[in-house]
Design brief:
Keywords: Membrane, TPR repeat, Transmembrane, Transmembrane helix. By secondary structure, this protein is an all-alpha fold. Helix content is about 75%, strand content about 0%. The chain contains 20 helices and 2 strands. It has a two-stranded parallel sheet with strand order 1-2. Strand 1, helix 20 and strand 2 form a beta-alpha-beta unit. The radius of gyration is 43 Å and the shape is rod-shaped. The N terminus and C terminus are likely disordered.
């Protein structure tokens, strides 16, 4: 390959300048500098200007040499496009369209961009998934009204949604290209950067989705605090929000069922007790059985009490006591007095082993009825006295036995104290 242009033309110096600038680029093994690229482009401008002055007098050999040099320039297009800032330079110099050497990136497609269609397709898939997550989040954040946390969640969702929809427009893509320019990054990376941003948004959405159970637990604790304070309306709001974030929070379903029961909304209480059953909590079976007992569906109620006794832990005194007591109750309703007596005696014996501040007396109230039916009047009066003097009312159903015990004592002229409400 010739490295010197031998010509007698007085214009040969511009071809030599062009050649020397081109040689500097060809011989550079590392990335080109902007100065090297500008030198060869301006040298080509000079050649073009000289040739335009004597277009009719150009010797054929000079045209041939110019075509060879142009071919060599085009062979360096990847290095020039990679290191150059052609678009910025064009905005300053305003070359004519026929000055093709200022438009090399459009003449030769950048191999780096050959996968742009794939990146753009993946970006669209990611953003579609993000929008789906956002729609789901928005519905979950407004179940029970707005507080600081849910308001923040909705505002965040809205901001991300605007970002997503904006990035799908041509205007959004142009803004991204402008940002890349400000960061000194080539525009050819636009598709890859768009994919990276969409991937980060999708990962963030997935992370938030996986964090929803923690948010659900937060609202469950708020609901538990409200329930403990007997603030049942506030407890209901927080527990519904907890379930919206984590429908598999069986403790929240159980507590919401108890909340509805305290609000005398038994249909909703039953619904949430049923949804809490997969948690295999013995209290769920006890409470649900008690509702069926109130409906006089004794067989179903008994099956729930028995299943609860299978599940209850040995050290869970309150629930084991309630299960034995309620099982005795449902057996009385079925006229199975011997079996009822057995379970109620077990409940009373369990109660006697507890510290005084944990003792309960509902079993004594119900046991008095068994003794009365079995003609043990003395025992019935003794159990009724214990019931009236000590029993607390845990539910509406418990009032029945305390009232019956009091009437029994009134019938024999024995005075008893007022049973406590809890």
């Amino acid at each position: 390959m010739t490295n010197v242009v031998n010509t007698t033309s007085q214009d040969s110096h511009v071809l030599n300048d062009y050649l020397q600038a081109l040689l500097a680029i060809e011989e550079t093994k590392s990335d080109l500098s902007p100065q090297q690229i500008l030198a060869v482009l301006l040298a080509r401008d000079a050649v073009h200007a000289e040739l335009m002055l004597k277009v009719a007098q150009i010797p054929p050999d000079e045209v041939t040499k110019l075509m060879e040099l142009d071919r060599r320039l085009k062979a360096q297009v990847n290095k020039i496009v990679k290191a150059g800032q052609l678009k910025d330079w064009r905005s300053s110099i305003h070359p004519p369209k026929e000055a093709w050497w200022w438009f090399l990136e459009s003449d030769e497609p950048d191999p780096w961009t050959r996968f742009d269609a794939i990146w753009d397709g993946l970006t669209t898939i990611n953003l579609t998934a993000v929008v789906s997550f956002l729609a789901n989040f928005s519905s979950q954040f407004i179940v029970s009204g707005l507080d600081l946390l849910t308001t923040f969640g909705l505002v965040g969702n809205g901001a991300i949604a605007l970002l997503v929809f904006g990035s799908l427009t041509q205007s959004g893509r142009e803004k991204l290209q402008k940002l890349l320019h400000q960061l000194k990054l080539p525009e050819r990376y636009c598709s890859e950067v768009s994919f990276g941003i969409s991937a980060l948004l999708l990962l963030g959405a997935i992370y938030l989705q996986n964090s929803l159970p923690q948010l659900g637990q937060y609202y469950y604790q708020l609901g538990l605090q409200s329930f403990t304070k007997a603030e049942f309306t506030e407890a209901k709001k927080n527990l519904k929000q907890a379930i919206a974030f984590d429908s598999g929070n069986f403790d929240a379903h159980l507590l919401l069922g108890k909340t509805f029961e305290n609000l005398e909304n038994l249909p909703n209480a039953r619904t949430h007790y049923m949804q809490a059953l997969p948690g295999k909590n013995a209290e769920t079976y006890n409470n649900l059985g008690r509702l069926y007992l109130g409906d006089e569906d004794y067989l179903t109620a008994e099956s729930f009490f028995l299943r609860g006794l299978d599940l209850v832990k040995a050290d869970n005194f309150p629930i084991r006591y309630s299960l034995l007591t309620n099982l005795g109750w449902v057996e009385i309703e079925q006229n199975r007095y011997s079996q009822a007596r057995k379970n109620l005696v077990s409940a009373i014996a369990l109660n006697q082993k507890q510290p005084s501040n944990q003792q309960r007396w509902e079993a004594n109230c119900i046991f008095a009825k068994v003794l009365e039916i079995q003609k043990d009047s003395k025992g019935a009066i003794a159990q009724s006295t214990t019931c009236v003097n000590n029993a607390s009312s845990y539910t509406t159903f418990d009032y029945r036995w305390a009232i019956l015990a009091r009437r029994r004592l009134e019938g024999v002229g024995t005075e008893g104290g007022n049973f406590k409400q809890k």
